[in-house]
Amino acid sequence: MDALISRLTAALGPAAVLTEPHDIAPYGEDWRGLYRNTPRAVLRPADTAGVAAAVALCAAAGVAIVPQGGNTSMVAGGIPSAPDAEIVLSLARLNRLRSVDRAGLTLVVEAGMTLRAAQLAAEAAGALLPLSISSEGSAQIGGVIATNAGGNNTLRFGNARDLVLGLEVVLPDGAIWHGLRALRKDNTGYALRQLFAGSEGTLGIITAAVLKLSPAPRERATCLVGLASVAAVLDLFARFRDEDDAALYAFEYISGTAMEINLRHMPDGRLPLGQSAAHYALIELATTRRNAALRTTIEAVLGDALEAGLIEDAAIALSEAQRLAFWALREHVSESQKREGASIKNDVSVPVASVPALLDRAATMLAKTYPDARMAAFGHIGDGNIHLNVITTADPEALMADVNAIVADLGGSFSAEHGVGLVKRAAFGQWRDETERGVMRRIKLALDPGGGMGPGKVF
Prior knowledge:
By secondary structure, the chain is an alpha+beta fold.
């Protein structure tokens, strides 16, 4: 190990190789605080060539690497699998904007750039990078793609992989795949970019990406609505979708319990409704059309819904400040639940029509089996992804298994957008049959025969 550290220091420079305990400890703790697996060392290369050199040296020495972006993973995907088990390779210094093409609506950025910085780069060019997640201020592009992050605008634009045109990737042996192609059509062989998107750092290290942009909206309109039931939330979603599907950018769900916890822990948090509700929907319309009168559209849909007895109360943002305040209520939910105490997080998805059944059956199961538990669900109801989080001190594996049984019965997924990482490895084998897992293992072995890239993740 000492000899390897010496070679890495010579290749990357002393400032790029961290070995002191107080320097490397933060890189071994996941965001949720579930694991504290201190790495053997931390590498911070400054460019793709440095990443390739580091990977090649580690591979030759038989030392495993864990790629780490902003370390915002909800499933501990960016930390070592055990204490002193692997070297962490941080992409934080690869944070440059390489190019923006306004005519072609593409953005080329390095993997260590935060999602928020990439959004701002798109805005500066008069365009929109439509991917939006709560951790966008610290989550980095490489990790966002490697985990195929979803977020608030999946309903309109899809997940991270749907926005990727090309990638630059360092493979487990240190070779570089130069795949930064900004082509909308390219049927030349396998779509390798889709192989690395969602691979959770187990097949290679993404160092740069070509991302698809969209024209910037000319107009937005946002509202927060209180409702009595999840069925009513889904009905309201259908009404907005039927009214103007192309303008529906986001339809987010917050349960009454999640909102209550949020308001208790969120600085300056305030509910902009006259009364609390059992369920809430945050809805945003946006368009590039001129004179679209989106506020009029929202008023019309909400008026009809109120007349039908579907909603209890609603507030429409009258300014950009109010719009951001509405979104802050949604984006702060995870942080508020972290402050509330121990919780078991279930990132699940079901067909959209089954969301009411999911939440109703989960509530019944919890009341019967875990009477002290509080279900603080929230999520992206427009695409069927619910973060069915439970505030409890119960056994996490038992409770997750009970939730997953309901999800499986409804034809859903136990990992909607967070991935598998370390947290969900045990359940992975139950959700994919041997044939499918066998294909995945053969891909892993083909690219990483030594098993040195992100060991312990997924499998």
